[in-house]
Amino acid sequence: MALARIARSGLRRSVGGNGSFSHEKGMFSEEVSTHKFSLLHHENAVAHGNQPYLSSIKTLNYISIWSRGIRTTPHQQFPNAASILEESESEYEEPRYAGLEATKPGEKPRVVVIGTGWGACRFLKGLDTKIYDVVCISPRNHMVFTPLLASTCVGTLEFRSVAEPVSRIQSSLATDPNSYFYLASCIGIDTNKHEVYCETVSNGGLPQEPHPFKVAYDKLVIAAGAEPLTFGIKGVNENAFFLREVNHAQEIRKKLLLNLMLSQNPGISEEEKKRLVHCVVIGGGPTGVEFSGELSDFIMRDVQEQYTQVKDYIKVTLIEANEILSSFDIGLRQYATKHLNKCGVSLMRGVVKEVHPKKIVLNDGTVVPYGLLVWSTGVGPSQFVKSLHLPKSPGGRIGVDEWLRVPSVEDVFAVGDCAGFLEQTGRPVLPALAQVAERQGKYLVGLFNKKIGKQNGGKALNMKDISLGDPFVYKHLGSMASVGRYKALVDLRQSKDAKGISLAGFLSWLIWRSAYLTRVVSWRNRFYVAVNWATTLVFGRDNSRIG
């Protein structure tokens, strides 16, 4: 063992003397042989508890230099020397990952999709699996119908009504022997090797956690979504709830019902009762307004009947830095403001300075105590997207051209909230909306099925002479938002400054419900949504707290 340590020490010195290494973003790369390998920043890995794993996968391109530090010894003279050198070499070899290797001649091209959001699932749904094998990688195994997510927080809808399993969207993921869904997070992409590097999502059931693996691709579609914007405000991540996933809605619902029940216990002061049942929503966009409207409905109907001891204490406050629903017509904004005030939602203009466990502080020094804080101020690039060594659009998204390809690398596309047009295209970065991502996914389906697939361009590095046809063009269909108590807003203008139809009131609410019911992915979930709406109308909302 001592001899082994001496051997390894000598080899390290030899590499240090002859190989030039540089440290960049948590990865070593040798000047003699450099790989473009995108990984999460080291500091981000530490923040998420992945430092031991990332330290084990830092790439060291080892060069065998035998003349320094230790003299080479003929294996026949000292048999142990061979094993020592082999052990030393293995220390410096690039890590070997289990997973899917590159496709072979005669096999179908493999398309790897990162994400299960609107863009990814629309692409998966339409992709012709007679032409391609498909692999989907995501930390969740379902698509979330986000426009109805706010309704699940107060029991208007059940959680399964807004979640569609990805295997139902693309059945080949469950039935095709060469197509797979992997419950994992992508941590890096090597565009030279056409490989994606992943870590499994698990809860202690695997021998090694996080469990790393790789997937080779012929074509890669990045649809990794975005993360809530916190603007670096202290205390947001620790104390606020976001509303992007089903588990977020579950936590909000549990917290809301818990606070209602705790406020009825004996010995609770008046001040503490008011704080416990004070719900604060930060952000006056469609999500914040719809959640506030759902809360007001819940208070006016269900709390008044089932929590009579605290019905006079419960309050909803919506805080926005500018105007609520700024992308809507001015007449609709005014209608929404009046209606929310009428429903008991207090509108406050201000900017949050810091968030504490039981209160928030605004820039002007105003202190707002709360029992439930929901943060809905828009989204921005995720840490994964930031870490990729790919061209970026204004705002930090992955830069794409008019055909949603990522320039400067081969066979990589990006759609949805994680992608934006590059400046040189002359096009604006599209808003982070579900309809944008869905349209991009639909466009990419046509590109893969009708252009790339039919011209035999599905294999890696096989697209150079293929005509992709017309570029992607986005046409805005309008915006809708529910404001509670059977009222909604419908703005059918194609842009903020354009002219078009704008409606508000009960008729708009019927349009809002009808439109979203038809947009729910499957007939199964449409049935769930319709039944939930009907039972809520007749029997009220489910306010049982489970878990």
From TrEMBL:
Subcellular location: Mitochondrion inner membrane; Peroxisome
E.C. no: 1.6.5.9
Gene3D superfamilies assigned: 3.50.50.100
Membrane topology (UniProt): Peripheral membrane protein
Gene Ontology terms for molecular function: NADH dehydrogenase (quinone) (non-electrogenic) activity
Membership in a protein family: Belongs to the NADH dehydrogenase family.
Record-given protein name: NADH:ubiquinone reductase (non-electrogenic)
